[in-house]
Amino acid sequence: MPKLRFAERDLEIAGGATVLETLEAAGIDVPNSCRAGACQSCLMQAVAGEVPEEARRGVSPAKRELGHFLACVCRPTADLEVARVGGSEAIAATIAAIRRCPGDVLEVRLRGAERLDYRGGQFITLLRDDGLARPYSLASVGGAAELELHVRHFADGAMSGWLARAAPGVEVAIRGPYGECFYVADDLERPLLLVGTGTGLAPLYGIVREALAAGHRGPITLLHGARRAADLYHRDELAALAAAHDNLEVVASALDATGDDDMTATPIDALALERAAAADRGALRVYLCGAPALVNGLRRRLFIAGVPLRSILADAFLPAATGGA
Fold it and tell me: What is the reported pTM?
């Protein structure tokens, strides 16, 4: 009889019961509604073991990559260890390095007390010892020894101002990872379009490097935009990446660009629509990151232009509710 492991408890799976039924029988509450695999309110994450395909039907490719499955229709035939989706304990970390980049952007590198299992493009919550917390996207790739964050420095920013003054060795904590905006290697020939403004480059930087490391062969276009040319950062790193991979094109866009600049003054949303129109929109996968107005507006316009909504992954950067960034 297979066993179900949850929160350091080993439970017997009796008579072909589902994961949901087994947990409920043990007095463990799991959100659920339809109990038929339709509403997805009972999503859980497989930590170890095999999940029957029936329990993954209708689950998005990104969620599948994270091990998510439907507990209400999952009938394990072998031992399975599961966890709640989104449940995350704080992990101790230290600031390894901070580098100031153009555009008042801080490249912050963290080293965790334990290795974080994540994908480039997801995000974490960074916590100070006084409880202040801010979400930041991961620009590093999964498996890297250090986590890389790109933080816009605001003079009155509660977290960013503190980070600008912090020294290597300062202790912090992190929670996560969260989010589904990351590379999925389901079709290595698929065209990819990545569009970001400001520090929206952070998740895209992680995503594009994971795609290239996975051997992605389809065309990859990364568009990075800003109001001012001076606010575009990591240009040398992106240029080196494009020079090393024939299928990667990087385009910088700034409204004040001149003919002498190695960039364009064409607005980034117009560039994105132009590139999408020239691609196979049925196969295209789009990643949008940055200001909410751009992300939400461009997602709608790309959908109207023929890109399926399921193929548009977005991460809108919302401002901190209180205390500044």
Answer: 0.81
